[in-house]
């Protein structure tokens, strides 16, 4: 539903709300013919308002000149040689108010960046996987408190790392409770990633080749089931392969491949026409080159992970990091989430289900803070700002995530906005594009809803 910010005391409130819900409102011309002034009849012909149309920023309480500072800042990073190219996009009140590209999609070819460029979104795949799984939650296929092993016997009776013996071998202990689906979706189930930390368990992940593109999701999960948990479930937040497990859980619960489920239940209904696990040949000319930095700090083309090749359809459909997408496709997904599960009359989730996803779902007795930072917690496949002062943000309840190659986004339900940023960049010299874009987006809001 396209939400309007009219006062509930307005005499037109009822009429506006009913029209937005898909009803025709007929005003009685003869007050003696009916005791009510409004008759309501269902109308199949009334189309819902189209979301994400380009609009002037001033129409949603923003300043055009101030908003343009985002483009100027991103161009500055390109001019400094820190980024090859950038696409940024912002929407407020279901209207696109900023959509700009700067720099180059491919520096060597001098191919300009374009708004329809395709990007490796890596971990921005995770919220999409979470939404897919929650569609099955709505259908009663599982409860969040259910043990993961109830549906995935490959993970039955996992042991937990408890230290090493005198020869360096792993010592284990039983789980204090079975890892739940809620813990799986909030990175508190005791799993790890293998590539972001060093421990005997992480070493096992690497040795098992857990993220090999040649494995099916079933084979991946079977390998994972041979490795102890790194932590007792519910005790620690650690970024992990848990969303790849969620992809396999979707397969088992839905009885179809994960990729086909995403296409059928999310991509096709939302018209996310460019989102997939690979870039087909006919779209390769829009695929942005990814860069790192050489020893002199100059941009250097090359994939960030060994063996990565997004031009071939992989066997391993990674819900944790395998998708490619465009700014517009990801905006359509994010706007659906901000709208409470609906976009352009297509409903993916119910509003209360979406609300569950950006509530704090971490265990109450969990030690330490999420992400190693203050003011942030975690829902179901989204990070959530619960204290904007501590987090140096603006709105309580903002939820977000990013990808390994630098892509970033956030959803702000207070200011009713979405921001998408797309780059393809690895390395320690990567500028803080998220903080810069956030500061510049919010200083362009002259009609804030949160104060």
Lay out the secondary structure.
Blueprint (H helix, E strand, L loop, with lengths): L12 H8 L2 E5 L10 E5 L10 E2 L9 H16 L5 E8 L2 E12 L4 E2 L6 E2 L4 H14 L20 E6 L5 E5 L6 H5 L14 H9 L8 H8 L17 H13 L3 H10 L23 E3 L5 E3 L22 E2 L1 H12 L3 E2 L2 E2 L3 H7 L18 E3 L4 E3 L13 E4 L5 E5 L4 E6 L10 H10 L9
Parallel strand pairs: 3-5
Antiparallel strand pairs: 1-2, 4-5, 4-19, 5-6, 7-12, 8-9, 10-11, 13-14, 15-16, 16-17, 17-18, 18-19
Helix pairs in contact: 2-11, 3-7, 3-8, 6-7
Overview of this structure, please?
The chain has 3 domains: 1-49, no CATH class; 53-121 and 278-313 and 326-357 and 405-442, DD-peptidase/beta-lactamase superfamily (Beta-lactamase), CATH 3.40.710; 140-254, no CATH class. The radius of gyration is 23 Å and the shape is globular. It has helices at 13-20, 64-79, 125-138, 181-185, 200-208, 217-224, 242-254, 258-267, 327-338, 351-357, 433-442, and strands at residues 23-27, 38-42, 53-54, 85-92, 95-106, 111-112, 119-120, 159-164, 170-174, 291-293, 299-301, 324-325, 342-343, 346-347, 376-378, 383-385, 399-402, 408-412, 417-422. The strands form 6 sheets. Strands 3, 4, 5, 6, 15, 16, 17, 18 and 19 form a 9-stranded mixed beta sheet that branches. Strands 1-2 form a two-stranded antiparallel ribbon. Strands 7-12 form a two-stranded antiparallel sheet. With 451 residues, it is α+β, with helices and mostly antiparallel strands. Residues 1-48 have low confidence and may be disordered.
């Amino acid at each position: 539903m396209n939400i309007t910010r009219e006062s509930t005391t307005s005499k037109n409130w009822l009429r506006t709300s009913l029209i937005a819900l898909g009803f025709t409102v007929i005003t009685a011309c003869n007050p003696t013919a009916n005791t009510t002034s409004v008759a309501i009849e269902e109308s199949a012909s009334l189309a819902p308002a189209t979301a994400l149309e380009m609009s002037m920023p001033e129409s949603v309480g923003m300043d055009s000149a101030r908003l343009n500072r985002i483009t100027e800042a991103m161009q500055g990073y390109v001019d400094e040689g820190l980024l090859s190219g950038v696409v940024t996009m912002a929407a407020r009140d279901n209207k696109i108010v900023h959509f700009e590209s700067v720099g180059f999609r491919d520096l060597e070819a001098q191919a300009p960046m374009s708004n329809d460029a395709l990007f490796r979104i890596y971990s921005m795949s995770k919220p999409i996987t979470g939404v897919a799984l929650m569609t099955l939650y709505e259908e009663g296929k599982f409860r969040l408190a259910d043990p993961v092993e109830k549906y995935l016997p490959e993970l039955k009776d996992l042991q937990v790392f408890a230290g090493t013996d005198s020869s360096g071998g792993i010592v284990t202990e039983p789980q204090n409770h079975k890892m739940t689906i809620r813990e799986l979706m909030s990175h508190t189930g005791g799993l790890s990633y293998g590539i972001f930390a060093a421990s005997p368990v992480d070493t096992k992940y690497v040795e098992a080749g857990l993220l090999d593109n040649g494995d099916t999701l079933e084979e991946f999960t079977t390998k994972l089931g041979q490795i102890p948990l790194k932590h007792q479930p519910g005790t620690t937040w650690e970024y992990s392969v848990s969303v790849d497990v969620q992809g396999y859980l979707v397969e088992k619960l839905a009885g179809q491949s994960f990729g086909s489920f995403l296409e059928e239940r999310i991509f096709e209904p939302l018209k996310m026409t460019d989102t997939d696990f690979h870039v087909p040949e006919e779209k390769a000319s829009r695929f942005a080159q990814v860069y790192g930095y050489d020893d002199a700090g100059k941009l250097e083309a090359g994939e960030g992970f060994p063996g990565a090749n997004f031009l071939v359809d992989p066997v391993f459909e990674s819900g944790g990091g395998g998708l490619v997408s465009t700014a517009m496709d990801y905006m359509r997904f994010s706007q659906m989430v901000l709208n409470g599960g609906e976009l352009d009359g297509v409903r993916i989730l119910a509003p209360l289900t979406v609300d569950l996803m950006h509530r704090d779902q971490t265990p109450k007795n969990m030690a330490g803070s999420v992400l190693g930072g203050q003011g942030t917690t975690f829902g179901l496949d989204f990070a959530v700002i619960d204290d904007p002062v501590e987090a140096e943000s603006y709105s309580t309840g903002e939820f977000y995530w990013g990808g390994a190659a630098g892509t970033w986004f956030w959803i702000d339900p207070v200011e009713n906005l979405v921001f998408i940023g797309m780059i393809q960049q690895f390395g320690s010299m990567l500028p803080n594009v998220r903080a810069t874009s956030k500061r510049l987006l919010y200083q362009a809001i002259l009609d804030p809803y949160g104060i």
